[in-house]
Amino acid sequence: MSGPAIETFQLRKVFGEDKVAVAGLTLSVARGEVFGFLGPNGAGKTTSVKMMLGLVHPTSGSGLLLGHPIESPTARRRVGFLPEHFRFHGWMRADEFLDVHGELQGMSKADRAERIPLLLERVRLADATAQLLRTFSKGMLQRVGLAMALMHRPEVVFLDEPTSGLDPFGRLLVRDIINELREAGTTVFLNSHLLSEVEVTCDRVAFIRKGTVVRSGTLGELAAGQMLVRLRVGEVTPAFVAGLAEWGSGVQSPNGHEVTLYVDGEERLPGLAEWVVGQGVRLYAMEPGHVSLESLFVHIMADEDTADEGVAGEEEAV
Amino acid sequence: MNRSVRHIWLLAKLTLREAWRRRLLWIAGGLGLAFLVLFGLGFWAAYKDLVRHSDPDGPMAQGIFNFFMLSGLYAVNFLIVMTTVLTTVGSISQEISSNTIHAIAAKPLRRWELFLGKWLGHALMLTVYVLVMVLGIFLVTFVITGYTPPNPLEGLGLLLLEGLVVLSLALLGSTLLSTLANGVLVFMLYGLAFVGAWTEQIGSLLESQMAVDLGILSSLLLPSEALWRRAAYAMQSSITRTFNQAGPFSTSSVPSKWFIVYAGVYVLGMTLLAMRSFARRDL
């Protein structure tokens, strides 16, 4: 079957009278893609995921999961989900838990019996097969939840903060599993705060803020030829700070002695160094670096905040 | 098997398995049996005393046996209501507040299937409980005295319907309210129906139409107590009816057969409302 794995069109959710959780989410995730869904706390990420899985009803807009409307149970037949709050029935054993969820997904008994030990082994819980879930640690619960999400060999997997309860070994395990899923052609929708992980696992990312996608693309596309440069300088003047904006957008440390700038390519660097010195400011260090997802995240969100303040300022002035 | 039926049955089994694992069935069953033993011992002691002074096959003794049996069933009626409320009041609300619902509701099943599965699981547990307790009372009475009440099946069915009425209301509340708020609501409504039933009886004896109407209104809000009175009426001997003009087995104002139909419609209505409310709820 062709077409994107996930598509949303102006998906909107308003809780109560006026609490806008998701303002209008439009995105498309290709089949087989590992997609990172990023945004600050309260950006509407989890509500968006819940709408895509039929847990929360959209106020308006629509969406398709593997070509089926998101409200339809058919859409979820080939979808796996690890919830952000991975709370499961504590009275179940690990193998029983997977068995029940596999059965709910329509798997045959023989298939479940074959798959359960393999998955428990994969998430390093083979020793805890007959253990009750209420005796599991947070990390073990998250791993058994991951096994549950993969139980029926889904075509699309939603992982909502899949590493929040895991130690570094657990995180590596999740990273490996995501890579295996990519190799198997499974679409992964990854909602995570851990940007370093998203950076190494995702093919494409979307930055979401106030329930809308503000930027999306591959890391290369998002960086768009920009590079990052860190300046360590002496005392600065207001004219110097204002003049920096001509060289690129950036962030200044609170004490004003460290500046992080996004410039359009390294050919700008010699000119920047000359300009700094020309301004009478002492230049102690100039460190070029690549644009990481984390720096891009901070940069994009800071830009959006500035844009909001600008609009608010204009509105106030009017 | 039809997919919806398979989902409902699977969730019903899950509800039963949870009740078993969390020792709910053990506790309810164990205490229920303890109650039956206690009832039997008390009944036996009273029976021994009674047969010393009167003919056990005489009409007076038969009337007393009937009264004893109804007393046991009256306690069972309370146990049915309490056990039903306590086991169902948080059935859905607790899963929502603890987020355990997310992994289940994100599966390829409809919300109404999820709800009906839970409803069926609880209804099966209730049925077993009512059967054990009511048939237990019948059996104890029969073993000690050889007495069988009139219309035992009708009485059994009405007590089961009473449980289903409470169950359906509690599950509807569980889709709308927090566990605590739902518990308060269901118990308050039960209290209202209980007092309303007495108001109706006293109003009937005193020929106060207003008191009777208030009683009927409270029974319409929750028809549990009215069903008990109908069940008690069905299982009473003619002698007991003559003496019971007031009290828990009173026959001064007996709910009509149409009221039984109303109770059936009530169960259906509450269940449909709950399915709708749960389907619309954000999780």
Can you walk through the features of this model?
The complex is a heterodimer of chains A (318) and B (283). Chain A is α/β, with parallel strands linked by helices and 318 residues long. Chain A has 2 domains: 212 residues, 3-Layer(aba) Sandwich (Rossmann fold); 96 residues, Alpha-Beta Plaits (2-Layer Sandwich), CATH 3.30.70. Chain A contains 10 helices and 14 strands. In chain A, strand 1 and strand 2 form a beta hairpin. The mean pLDDT of chain A is 87. Chain B has 12 helices and no strands. The two termini of chain B are 29 Å apart. Chain B is globular, with a radius of gyration of 20 Å. The longest helix of chain B has 35 residues. The chains are: A alpha/beta (318), B mainly alpha (283). The interface between A and B is medium-sized, with 30 and 22 residues.
Keywords:
heterodimer; A: Rossmann fold; Alpha-Beta Plaits; 2 domains; 6-stranded mixed β-sheet; 4-stranded antiparallel β-sheet; 10 helices; 14 strands; B: 283 residues; mainly alpha; 12 helices; 81% helix
In which range does the helix fraction of chain B lie?
Answer: over 70%
The number of helical segments of chain A is 10
Q: Structural class, from secondary structure content of chain B?
A: mainly alpha
| Number of H- or I-type helical stretches of chain B | 12
Q: Rg of chain B to the nearest angstrom?
A: 20 Å
The CATH class of the largest domain in chain A: Alpha Beta
The whole-angstrom Rg of chain A is 23 Å
Strand content of chain A: 25-35%
Helix-strand string of chain A: EEEHEEEHHHEHEHEEHEHEEHEH
Q: What percent of the residues of chain A sit in helical stretches (DSSP H or I)? A: 25-40%
| CATH fold-level name of the largest domain in chain A | Rossmann fold
3D shape of chain A = elongated
Order of helical and strand elements of chain B: HHHHHHHHHHHH
Number of strands of chain A: 14
Low-confidence stretches of chain A: none
- Termini of chain A, distance in Å? 53 Å
